[in-house]
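Dear colleague,

Thank you for sharing your sequence with our group. We've completed the structure prediction you requested, and as agreed, I am returning the results in plain text so they can be pasted directly into your records. Please verify that the sequence below matches your submission; if there's any discrepancy, let me know and we will rerun it promptly.
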Amino acid sequence: MESVDEVIPIAQMWEERRHLTDAAYQMLGSRPEAEYVVDEVYRCWYGLPERERAQVVQPRSWLVGSTSRICRARLAASQGGKSGTSAESAQPDDREHTDRARHSLRARHARPAAQQHDAVAGAVRDACRAEAPEALEALLAPDVSVLFDGGGKVRAPARPIHGFRQVAWCLLSLLARHPRTTLDTHSINGRTGLVVRYDRQVAAVLTLDVADARVVQVWVTLNPDKLRSWNRPA
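Please find the predicted structure tokens below.
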């Protein structure tokens, strides 16, 4: 059984969303409609109480079933009926905002020179590429946190993960090697971060807060809406 906060590889995450979108498109015949349905499916997923979500043995099967149900409801509505949608998108809790603010303040007070920050980011990239947990752990502060912004539109952890061993495991799981996945450093808001591409499309952007030559916080953007600007044609 998958835990509520299990981290799945980016390749699996995006294949899952693509599969659901294709299934919805086959039923509805419209890409925009299919995308809307898939967004609603993930809203329903994160609208489940945590205990109930943890009891879902096969999350992907649950998502496929929900996709079919919502598509049928929309088809019925288009023929003269009405159907509502359910749960709102999950929002980060206050503790997440507090953690982010605390670590960001710490990073600002101990912000390293750009060259040192770049070196740390490059070392994190190399450790993730090599799938080397000990090397990655050595780059993380003991109380490091990783936070996710999936926008309720992909199956990502809903809560922050804390501690250097847990964060290292999380990043290595998320960035697991795959023939169609690449990991590179890139300037993000004036500081070097990490960009993950899946099938040449940006699938995740990782912002690193660094203090005292260690990463104190990682912010992982997975929300497809927020990644559109990265995927616009040049």
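Summary note from our side: The first strand starts at residue 140 and ends at 149.

Kind regards,
the structure core
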